[in-house]
Protein: DUF2225 domain-containing protein
Organism: Geosporobacter ferrireducens
Amino acid sequence: MNQDLFDREIQCPVCKNIFHTKRVKSSACRIEKRDTDFCVVYSSTNPMFYGAHVCPMCGYAAMESVFKDITPQGKKVIETAITKRWVQRSFGEERSVYDAIEAHKLALICGQVLNHKKGALGNICLKLAWFHRFINNEREREFLHHAQTCFEEAFLHESLPIGNLDEVSLTYLIGELNRRLGKYEESIDWFNKAVENPLIKRNKKLEAQAREQWRLAKEEFKKLKNDVRVV
């Protein structure tokens, strides 16, 4: 038994079933590094694996922070679109990265049928990209693209902050996602927006990182154009 984990009792807001899910003790979390798209790599049990709750009875899934936030109409949508096709199974034990991927995909599907905001969907897609990165799976790029698209729409049409992403952090993140996807011109534009935003002065570490990734994007874009000329 993993001593880093403890049980938490949850009641599903859709079917009222009571189930258990694991959580990671905060004292057990040990960070190894942080990637430039905010992905945290842990040397210990990864708490992100347990961020999505999944009801084993009806199949309703959502991120912990919004699991209980479902309307009566939303419950009917889940019962029709999810529960009727659901094969009962539990995510209440220790999760592998593959279990985490499946749980978050279920949360993404439920979020889509419930028409959740693009920012919320982008956060799930970003985590799915990170999980695929952990196993060196090529679908990382697919989910990075979905996250980038969702976040750009959210930036334009939704109120901020989105989760723990304020205006500057989101602007920077969109720039970094574009860079990782090879969209260097778009990346440079977003990094410019980030470093030119007066609010970034409140976060010197993020400002330095934005300038470094902006420099890197410009170098990569220059190399790409030179390679095209050679061809």
The chain has a mean pLDDT of 96.
